[in-house]
Amino acid sequence: MSADPLTDFSRLCVHTITTKGWELEEAVDHYAEVGISGITVWRQWLDRRNASQAGDRIRAAGLEVVSLCRGGFYPAVEEKARKESILDNQRAIEDAATLGAPLVVLVCGAVPGQSLEESRKQITDGIAATLPLAESVGIKLAIEPLHPMYADDRSAINSLASANDICDQLNHPLVGIAFDVYHLWWDPELEEQTRRTAEANRFFAYHVCDWMTPTHDLLNDRGLMGEGCIDLRGIRAMVEQNGFHGMIEVEVFSNRWWNKPTAEFLKAIQHAYLHHT
Ligand code: ZN
Hints:
With about 280 residues, the protein is α/β, with parallel strands linked by helices. Helix content is about 40%, strand content about 15%. The longest helix is centred in the middle third of the chain and has 22 residues, at about 115-135. Zinc ion (ZN) binds near residues 178 and 251.
């Protein structure tokens, strides 16, 4: 592995959804070819695939499986739907174990019209219900707090403090946090809550992209690092001071970039990783 910071991709991981135009095998081959070290697999990429063979294929190419994205979506008004969600999360945990991913990222869910407090209770109960399986296969679960603009229907956990509170309640070494700069960069408590996360040994994952001004689409207008207003270098230095030295995962949902050739996007990702992250 090169120590030259301008060619060092030993901590660069890319999410399969970022390079959405590629099937799993294409993504693996392209990442490996340019020296990218990690891959986070989104569950859709395991559809119609054998997860065990997919994991072998990834490792044979020299890549590390960093995580499986994503479980979660626990809250529902009906109990039946909440039970189905727990079954789905159990499938995600089993898939992660078969794939050889150490971690499942949780987008925890919310229900429009149901109180966020009730949703958080259902999330806590849902995670607790899947913990015995996670324990038996040794898979970590990372709560990903989402930006408050998603509090209606994607997650009732909207700050690092809130994620830490749920982790405190569950109080389990396999339950931690996925820190995504897109969701957390605005938080005045970021440093204090990062310290709390690190001290509890629950800083499990680090996702990067950038915040566009203006943002045209709440889901699919993320920027590539350096295109927006997030202090990526400052936040990275802060999380590293708190002891995080794991993979830096590029997770960009962008109709603008998805409309370009995927190989061109991957080149831009590498450049942005080296120069703006
Ligand atoms: Zn993320």
